[in-house]
Amino acid sequence: MKKLLSALLFSTVCFMYAQKNIDHYVAVALENNEVIKQKNFDINKSLYALKEAQSLFSPNVAFVANYTIADGGRTIDIPIGDMLNPVYSTLNQITNSNSFPQLQNQSVLINPNNFYDVKLHTTMPILNYEIIYNKKIKTQQTSLQKIELEIYQRELVKDVKTAYYKYLQSVEGIKIYENALAIVKENQRVNKSLFKNDKINRTAVLRSDNEVTRIQANLTTAINTSKSAQSYFNFLLNQKLDSEIEFDDNNDLPQELISENTANREELKQLEQAKEINENIYQLTRSNWFPKLSGFADLGFQDFDFTVNKQSRYYFAGLSLEWNIFSGNKNKYKLKQVEEDGKKINSQTENAKQQLLLQFQVAQNNLRSALEQYESDKSQRETAKKYNSDITKLYKEGLVIYIELLDAQNQVVNTQLNTNISLFNSWIAFAELERANASFNFNK
């Protein structure tokens, strides 16, 4: 049995890899899906945020212009008259002239009146760890969003394949019911002919009429189910809901099998990225204890009454150092919070590893069960065909009643339906195993 299951698994895997149309549809879905487009917009936004973080290392130059008028308020008193008038009086007496006038004490407004200041103001960080770690965090956040996109893409691939196989399943179901309808209509015709010739009673005719009605109803249900499956599949591809779907008929057998690979699942990469981000958040919070050094420079003109000359020009430059000495243990408690987040991420990672491994094993077991069920249904289908062939011959010879013939035909239809269901359920189970193992190759 194990060898049989391995052979079936190999055959199913090979069939899956041989399909071309489904690969095309997956590519269309990945290209047209609106959610993927939205996530790409978020990634682009993150890239711009990263460039913004990088720009913080560059100098910032601003054109600044001020003009002030003032009156009243605080003043600076300068006793220039009290200091110089005695000296000037003595000089006038010595020179016997009035060459040295008497001066008044001056009172100058602190707020400058009719004063302009036009300059280029330049600032630049020289040492700032917050900017350094902020850039690292922005870079990792961009990577995190790319991983989230990959996770969604893998889910979409699984959904597209599942919807595709369910549609094929419904199409095959329609074919089975169409064949069954042709058979029961032929039975109906034969029974009516036999009834006219008084070879059978009316019960067989009524039963054949009921079978035609029942199969027609089942066929209608199958057609509606197929239309719904078609609409959902086209919805995933973001195209018209009634678009035609092409089938795959390629049975080439490539030489490879799926092996467990859950360690490379994007979910674990996502948690690892979250851990790295948390570590940089820790360093960012810790950097608040480090000094910040920046430089500034002003180059411009300033004077009263819009005067512009050599004396109006000026430059002003310097360094600024900021170092937090005490903040009431605020950063200490922030660091404790970040540490707890780190412990939580570690716990989530260990739990996720077990969950992903469990998901793979369950999907693998489901595939094995589906393949075994398919093999069983296929065997029952062949047996039912042979049984129906024998009963049909006996019925034509009048050796069995119609109920036995009807039972044999129903067995054929039911085993065909069961085989069709189990076959495509196997393919769906493989799509789920492929998702659980993250083995779909986006680059093919």
Written account of the structure:
The protein starts with a helix and ends in a 7-residue tail after the last helix. It has nine helices and six strands, in the order αααββαββαααββαα. β5 and β6 (313-322) form a beta hairpin. It is an alpha+beta fold and 444 residues long. The strands form two sheets. Strands 1-4-5-6 form a four-stranded antiparallel β-sheet, with no helix packed on it. Strands 2-3 form a two-stranded antiparallel ribbon. It has two domains: 2-64 and 128-293 and 329-437, Outer membrane efflux proteins (OEP) (Up-down Bundle); 71-111, no CATH class. Residues 1-18 and 250-256 have low confidence and may be disordered. The radius of gyration is 43 Å and the shape is rod-shaped.
Which features would summarize this protein structure in a list?
alpha+beta, Outer membrane efflux proteins (OEP), 2 domains, two-stranded antiparallel ribbon, 9 helices, 6 strands, 66% helix
